[in-house]
Amino acid sequence: MKRLRHSGRVVLVTGAGGGIGAAIAQLYCEEGARVALVDFDEAKVKEQVALLRAGGHTVEWAKADVANFDECAMACDQLVKKLGPIDTLINNAGVSPKHDGAPAPIWEMNPDEWERVVGINLTGSFNLVRALTPSMVERRFGRIVNMSSVAGSAYLPIVAAHYSATKAAIIGFTRHLAGELGPFGITANALAPGRIETPLLKTVSAAANQAVVDETPLRRLGTPLEVAKAACFLTSDESDFVTGQVVDVAGGWLMR
Q1: Are 46 and 58 in contact (CB under 8 A)?
Q2: Which residue in 42, 158, 163, 182 has its CB near the most CB atoms, within 10 A?
């Protein structure tokens, strides 16, 4: 029988309407957690909720733009009332805009696009942490995983400057959280995925994805489930003494 490592836990996943976020939510459900899904795309998140509930899992959802603190705080309040105090936060929501399959060069980048990417990828993580850590501090327990990227520590021409900047900032943010929140029994770690087979890849040319495969020691792209497994490990009892770390889920691509 599979051991339910997250039985009794309440987990909130942002950007849970599809791709990596949906896989993370699914795995936490399978591991016994009650799961809260937060996404801006109401139709997509409702579809995921229906699938998970059909499997007998306890799932609730809330619509929120993670870049907006008031919406995040309201969503958290609603979800806590339905599921109880949130133990685990997975800041997965993120965007990487493309234009005809290519990132905008810095000299052509629309300032509004910069602000939107920073708002979702970086400020969004702050907003959820700010909304949920008071309760974690009070209860002297919490688990946080922020989604960085291999682009946070290496130059990748397949993403734009705003994406790399936010993913690098997430690493610093995570390490600061680990130091500040550690005395309260709260761990904070980051995941740095490489090329993962999600709908986002459809915005990039097949040649660009193949080039990554050719540079990856495991000679393939990753799967959303593999990222989900890493998240579940970092928030399980097996990693109680692990905090402030950045774990690459990249098949050896861009090893540091």
Answers
A1: no
A2: 163
